[in-house]
Specification:
131 residues
Length: 131
């Protein structure tokens, strides 16, 4: 019998000297939370900023934020009972001083109406193509 040498290298020679993922093609996963929401709530709580909260049912509430957690906000109102509001029921909120009505300088978002969308259905042509 002839002693044959193994072709494969030993385990000690195959040590992982270089990491598997390196170079410009590897991207890190973004963080789950940016903590911007927490910073905003803390800032408004410390200043006791008068806020307006628009609920999903269309009701506006005026007051200030006393505390918050992951799911809800405790909202203090003057001359009315304090409320514990679930965040899922909040459509949006803004500082009470930013509400300038329907002027051009208002910072609140408005719903826009696109008149040419109605024309598309009338002429029967896709994507607003007109003759």
């Amino acid at each position: 019998m002839v002693n044959r040498k193994l072709i494969r290298p030993s385990i000690s020679e195959m040590s992982p000297s270089t990491p598997k993922f390196h170079g410009p093609g590897y991207k890190r996963v973004p963080p789950d939370q940016t903590h911007a929401e927490n910073f905003y709530y803390v800032k408004q709580m410390n200043n006791k900023t008068p806020m307006v909260i628009r609920l999903t049912n269309g009701e506006d509430l005026q007051g200030y934020i006393e505390w918050y957690d992951r799911d809800c906000i405790k909202f203090n109102r003057e001359g009315a009972p304090n409320l514990l509001i679930y965040k899922t029921s909040i459509l949006y909120m803004y500082k009470q001083g930013e509400d300038t009505g329907d002027d051009e300088g208002s910072r609140r978002p408005r719903h826009r109406r696109y008149p040419d969308r109605d024309d598309r259905a009338d002429n029967g042509l896709p994507d607003g193509n007109r003759d």
